[in-house]
Amino acid sequence: MKKIVICLLVFVTVISCKKQQDKKVKTFENTNLSGIVFGTSYSAVYDSEIDYTKQFDSLFDAINSSLSTYIPNSDISKLNRNEYVTIDAHFEVVFLKSKEIYKATKGVFDPTIGDVVNAWSFGADKNKFLTDSATIENLMTSVGFNKVMLIDGKIAKQPKTYLEFNAIAKGYGVDVISEFLESKNINNYLVEIGGEIRVSGENKEKHKPWRVGLDEPRFDGGQSVFKAVNLKDEAMATSGTYRKFKVDDNGNKYAHIINTKTGYPTKTNVLSVSVIAKDCMTADGYATAFQAMGVEGVKTFLQNHPELKVFLIFENENKALETLSLNGFPE
C-alpha cells in the first residue's frame, strides 16, 4: 500500500510540474490593432488583452467632426463657410497648440495657409507651376494666424480666412489615442498614425524598448528604412518633401511646404525632418515648420529649444545625401 501511495504522489508531482512548465512556456502577447483614419492608416500596440477598436473609432469620429476639412459638416468646415459654431475641446487644444508653434516660429507654421496650398495643385503636372501670381497675391491677403482669435469658445476671423490643421491633426490623433490608453492604466504602448508615433514604456512582448524606423528619402516612390532608433515615453513625427515637389525650368526643387510669407512653394535642400518631443502634436507641427526653415534656420531655432530633438536628411551642394542630428537625437 505504501508503494502505491508513493507512486501516486510522484505522479501528481509530475503533473503539477508539467502544468507549471506549460505556464512558463506561454508567452505574453501584445494587442495589435490597425485601421484607416484621416486618409491614412493607424496602428496601436499595447500590453492589454482588451480590444479598444470601437473606442478608437469613436474618438477618431469626434476628431473628424471637429477638425476635418474633408467633412462638409465638421466644425472647421462650417467656420470656413463663416457659419456660427461653438468649438469643442478637440478644436481648442489644437488651436492653442497651433498658436504656440505659430508664435515660436514667427509665422513659419501657419494654419491659415491652407487655401494657398490648395491653389498649387501639387497632384497635377509636376513640371510646371500652374498658379498665377495674381491668384496667390489675392489669397495671401487672408493669410495670418495672428488675425484669428479664440474668444469664449468662438472663433473670430476674417470672412475669407481659411483654417486648416492638417499639418498637426495626425499628431493630435496619436496623442488622443495614447492618452485614452493611459486612462485605462496601459503604460506600455506604441500608437502610430500615418508615420507619426508616440510610445510609452517598453514593448512587453519582446522585453525591449520600442524601436521605430525612419524612411529613406526616395524619389522613385519606393520605401525603405534609413535608420532605426529607440524611443521611450516620447513622440516622433517626420515631414518629407521627396514625394511632393515641383521643379522649375532651372531644375530647382520646390517643396509642397508653402512659404507663409510669400505664398510660393519653399525652395529647399531638406528632404526629411524628424522631430522628437514629449507629445506627438508638438512634434508634428514643428516637423512641418522645420521643412520651411532650412538647415541653418533649424540649427538657430533649436539653440533656444533644447526640448526638441531633430534629425535632418538633406542634399549638399554636390546633390549627395547628408544627415544632421541635433539636440541629442538618438543614434
Describe the structure using short key phrases:
single chain, 331 residues, alpha+beta, 8-stranded antiparallel sheet, 8 helices, 35% helix, disordered N terminus
Low-pLDDT runs: 1-18, 123-128
SSE succession: HEEHHHHHEEHEEEEEEEEEHEE
- The total beta strand count reads 15
Strand residue content = 25-35%
Across the major sheet, the strand order is 1-2-5-6-9-13-14-15
Number of distinct helices:
8
Rg for CA atoms: 25 Å
- Dominant shape: globular
- End-to-end gap: 70 Å
User: How does the major sheet shape up?
Assistant: 8 strands, antiparallel
- Helix-and-strand structural type: alpha+beta
Mean pLDDT: 86
Helix content: 25-40%
List the helices and strands and how they pair.
Blueprint: H1 2-25, E1 31-37, E2 40-46, H2 53-67, H3 75-80, H4 89-104, H5 114-120, H6 133-140, E3 149-151, E4 154-156, H7 166-183, E5 189-193, E6 196-200, E7 210-215, E8 225-231, E9 234-240, E10 245-247, E11 253-258, E12 265-267, E13 270-277, H8 280-302, E14 309-315, E15 321-326
Antiparallel strand pairs: 1-2, 2-5, 3-4, 5-6, 6-9, 7-8, 9-13, 10-11, 11-12, 13-14, 14-15
